[in-house]
């Protein structure tokens, strides 16, 4: 299957309508459903354009409606804070007047090296990606009945290290973009957020015993260091809890050198089965 990295990067080139309003094109998907990871990546980019010279250090997103991937999405940015070190922005994504998503992003100016205290969890000891077999970018890709419908998921390649089925369904995977990505720190952070959102669904499905009707409710990323997208990255994932039709998934991502890139969390909703007479 051909890579869609070029198409994804094209949709990351948002149209700036005015200083605080942007428009982004979407990608084909089953049932014309906009992927949460894609739209949240676009929202982070829109916010970043209003905070030049500052790197994203966190983003918290709530997904409210699925949207229609055949239509563009408007991203309205609101300035919540402009301090000496931090900038905070709210982004509202709308389509045909309806709110699809709300995101809060924070950006930061780097502190002097002398003021830093650095620590992180160790990177898991796993086999190198070159020793592992190819797998599809997403579990949905294994379905041959949907050719051409998952373009929004074909921009990266990955290797699965392991995959436990029972709770908390710990699993690890190597991943990298399926091609060259421009050297842009905000674009890099946006692609990291995109990847984490679409792959954190898997441990939640595994812990609950299989794929079912579900929707993403919220997604959060804390960025610790820039990702090196020219090499493989390791994402360790799990689903530590499920209650009241909600499942939480979490993950940590590392550069191959062992540097912690980000910490991610995502919650999914699994609606109860309905009986029809």
Could you walk me through the main structural features you see in this protein, from its secondary elements to its overall organization?
The protein is α+β, with helices and mostly antiparallel strands and 277 residues long. The chain has one domain: Porin. It is built from four helices and twelve strands, in the order αββαββββββααββββ. The chain has helices at 5-11, 36-49, 185-199, 201-207; strands at 15-18, 21-24, 55-63, 73-82, 86-95, 98-108, 156-163, 171-177, 215-223, 233-243, 246-255, 260-269. Helix 2 runs antiparallel to helix 3. The longest helix is centred in the C-terminal third of the chain and has 15 residues, at 185-199. It is globular. The termini are far apart.
Architecture, according to CATH? Beta Barrel
Pattern of helices and strands:
HEEHEEEEEEHHEEEE
**In CATH, what is the class?**
Mainly Beta
Output the CATH homologous superfamily.
Acyl-CoA thioesterase, double hotdog domain
From the 3D structure, determine the CATH topology. Porin
Helical proportion, percent range: 10-25%
Question: Using DSSP, what is the number of strands?
Answer: 12
Broad shape: globular
Q: Quick one: biggest sheet?
A: 12 strands, antiparallel
What is the strand content?
A: 35-45%
SS summary, helix count: 4
- Spatial order of the strands in the main sheet? 1-2-4-5-6-3-9-12-11-10-8-7
Structural class: alpha+beta
Query: What's the domain count?
Result: 1
Cα-atom Rg, whole angstroms? Answer: 18 Å
Mean pLDDT: 89
Distance between the termini: 42 Å
Low-confidence stretches: none
Domain Acyl-CoA thioesterase 2 C-terminal: 172-267
Organism: Mycobacterium asiaticum
Pfam family, one: 4HBT_3
Domain Acyl-CoA thioesterase-like N-terminal HotDog: 31-107
